[in-house]
Design a protein that fits this description.
Largest sheet: 6 strands, mixed
Number of domains: 3
Number of helices: 11
Strand order of the largest sheet: 1-2-3-4-5-6
Order of helices and strands: HHHHEEHEEEEHEHEEEEHHHEHEEEE
Number of strands: 16
Helix content: 25-40%
Oligomer: single chain
């Protein structure tokens, strides 16, 4: 777990260092803070897109409706096997779920493929003691043990392959969720593609509170119950910054090949997504991933497709804002002027001290605000500069009630806390 987090953090620092050459300290601060924020959110059980599953958390195994919903949203994902039967069983005083698997390809199944779904099921169903998978006489079991630590009760997940992980009150749940594919049934390729794109890219671009997509299906072919769709897509992750709804990260336009399994009802179940290699030129990626006729048609209609993607994504964002009852402007971060702390008299020493302080990692490094949803509530993190006493003030407050949750003040000279 720590290895994963450290890798992400180092990546953020490396990006920041590269940007420093051309963009200056303001950009370094912004990217660095985002990386550290990502690290914390990866530990947050309530952070989207995991909230839907977590709200289904069952209090007991007999809570059949929630258990079945949880299973349905954490479909077993493997190119080599699929679940054909499931049942609740008892082994002495232990209660478990047993899944029977069927081969779909002549390749050995990997234990990690079972581990990914089982970990989530055990995290969400506290009264569940083990999850078992059976195929061709082979059995893979993952089980749960309780233990006491200084912080209180934790549960340890272990399996018969020597793998183990400790989840403290579910804090590590989100890391495992990145490897679990949601199960979606759709009545059309278009609908299935939209859900698949959101499922795949919400995890990759997780810095915002809302993800929106646009896509165009350029071709689709169904063979032996599987549909292969060539699509061009856009995706944006949005967050409120200075009361504007800002696209902080995403894909502007990129090709993808989406694979769906078609069931006996004619519904599409998402199976696999292949995206363009990062850094590859758009035209080269289209020519490599699509057959010639589809590639030529895609490139010939580039401007029209790009406009459609932008319109579709923007429409989803506008609908979300309407649900919230907010009339914010929509755009990229660069569309809105920002007054960075380095421009108002805050020293580099102070800026770096602020950046490295865990208490301040959610606060913007500009004069203004940004918002985060925490435990279902919206909070505003506000940064202001007080020229009179050369200090930077930080305040977190409830968006609805305006009640202050915390306040800090640091020196603009060295970043040390004041008062």
């Amino acid at each position: 777990m720590k290895q994963l987090f450290d890798t992400k953090l180092k990546k953020g620092i490396a990006i920041a260092a590269a940007v420093a050459v051309t963009a200056g300290i303001a950009a370094v601060i912004y990217i660095g803070a985002a990386s550290r924020r990502e690290k914390r959110l990866a530990e947050d059980i309530t952070f989207a897109p995991y909230r839907q599953l977590y709200t289904l958390k069952a209090t007991k195994l007999k809570d059949v409706e929630n258990v079945n919903s949880i299973i349905g949203l954490t479909t077993f994902y493997s190119e080599n096997a699929r679940i054909v039967n499931q049942e609740q069983v008892a082994d002495g005083n232990k209660k478990g779920l047993v899944f029977e698997l069927e081969e779909t390809r002549a390749y050995p199944i990997q234990s990690k493929e079972c581990r990914q779904q089982a970990t989530v099921l055990l995290a969400l169903i506290p009264k569940l003691d083990f999850v078992e998978y059976k195929m061709n006489g082979e059995v893979y079991r993952r089980y749960q043990q309780y233990g006491e630590e200084s912080r209180g009760k934790v549960f340890v997940l272990a399996d018969d392959k020597g793998f183990s992980a400790t989840l403290k009150s579910g804090s590590d749940f989100a890391v495992f969720m990145d490897q679990v594919r949601p199960a979606y049934e759709s009545q059309s390729v278009h609908e299935a593609a939209g859900k698949a794109i959101l499922a795949e890219l919400n995890g990759k671009f997780s810095g915002g509170e809302f993800g929106a997509e646009g896509h165009t299906i350029m071709s689709a072919e169904t063979v032996n119950g599987k549909t292969r769709a060539c699509a061009v897509l856009a995706f944006g992750s949005y967050r409120f910054i200075n009361d504007n709804f800002v696209r902080i990260e995403g894909e502007t336009i990129t090709p993808a090949v989406l694979t769906f399994q078609v069931n006996d009802k004619g519904n599409y179940m998402f199976e696999h997504a292949e995206f363009a290699i990062e850094g590859m030129k758009y035209e080269d990626a289209v020519n490599e991933m699509f057959v010639k006729e589809t590639a030529e048609r895609t490139l010939a209609n580039h401007e029209r497709i790009l406009q459609q993607l932008e319109n579709d994504e923007k429409q989803q964002v506008q609908n979300y804002l309407k649900q919230l009852g907010r009339n914010s402007k929509i755009g990229k971060f660069s569309d809105f002027p920002a007054t960075y702390l380095s421009k108002v008299g805050v020293s580099s020493e102070a800026a770096n001290a602020i950046l490295e302080n865990d208490k301040l990692l959610s606060y913007p490094m500009w004069v203004g605000t940004q918002e985060f949803i925490e435990d279902g509530k919206r909070f505003v993190y506000e940064t202001s500069y007080e020229e009179g006493n050369s200090s930077v003030a930080f305040k977190k407050y409830d968006y609805e009630t305006k009640q202050t949750v915390e306040e800090f003040k640091v020196s603009a000279a060295d970043g040390n806390f004041l008062g």
